[in-house]
Amino acid sequence: MEIPINVSLDLDKTLNCGQTFRWYKKNNQWLGVANGTALIFDFNQKSDLLKIQSNCEEIKGENLENGVIHYLGLNDSLQSIKGSALKQVEKSYPDFVPKFHEIVDTTIGIRLLRQDPWEMLVEYLLSTQSNINTIKNRCETLAAFFPENQVFVGEEPFFLFPSVEQLRRLSVDEFQSMGFGYRSKWLKNLIDTIDIREFHAIKNMPLEQKINYLTSFNGIGFKVANCVSLFGFSDFKAFPVDVWISRFLNQFFGVTGNAESLMIMGQEIFGDFCGYIQEYIFYYIRTSCR
DNA sequence: GCCCAGGGGTAGT
DNA sequence: ACTACCCATGGG
To answer: N- to C-terminal Cα distance for chain A?
Structure first.
């Protein structure tokens, strides 16, 4: 099917900016899994048509069109988000306004995906102290361990992300053999102890309570908790601070500190949608200074 | 071989 | 609260 896209969307940057790990581009098409449905996107930027192929006709109970619109965050008003953040920057850090425009105007089509919280929790636990390529390989290795999860769109194979119950069948040694290193025991502990209903219930809690719950697990620290809150639960007040964001804040605002103090800094600078702006910054600094 | 990566836990101040 | 140190592994 095809759906018209009449809002700003940069699909390449959205799927390639580091918020998601299992999408890949092949023959000018994007292939990936969105909330349990395998998809192939073919986006013609000129005609503003998004061609969609899939392995089934729905995404988590919604029809395909609405499911894709939801997954891609196409209902987010990017202009409102930019306006809100700009107002906050003008008020508190006017010297930063020119840089703010430069960053946002070069990344404006990026949208925050509505990804599966469970997948985000596992994948960001595996992300610590690793570059994005390594993380992508790990996530795909883990998913491909379960051949029963394989689905096809035409000839193209996909692996749906394993459930908690499926992961419980694996041992620390098997995680080790997948190259997870010291994260293996964290993952094993997580899947053995998590109450999945309790986990999903944090969606409606304030950010501080999400972080408190998530950081109660071994291996989930402040930064990863913010990633899960932002990318899994769409809490736009989350502000993940990794080495890149930390360097950026030091360079442009002269601040240093741990992930928690710098998150508060990000919230003060950019306001209620700081998570969105964080993703723009992340893409900007990783593509411009090189 | 060396350095870095979407960090976190722990022990010692 | 802050710091130093360790942790496994792959990629550039």
So the answer is: 39
pTM, two decimals, is: 0.97
Residue type, A111: R
When the pLDDT of each residue in chain A is averaged and rounded to a whole number, the result is 97
CB A223 within 8 A of CB A261: no
Which residue type does A78 have? Answer: L
At residue A150, the 3 state secondary structure works out as strand
The pair of three-digit structure tokens given for residue A277, joined into one six-digit string: 């702006």
Buried b (16+ CB within 10 A) or exposed e, A45-83: eeeeebebbbbeeebeeeebeebbbbbbbbebebeebbe
Give the whole-angstrom CA distance, residue A180 versus residue A186: 10
Token pair for A69: 């619109």
Spell out residues with C-beta < 7 A from strand C: A 129-131, 133-134, 137, 176, 179-182, 257-258, 261
> Tokens at residue A79, please?
């202009």
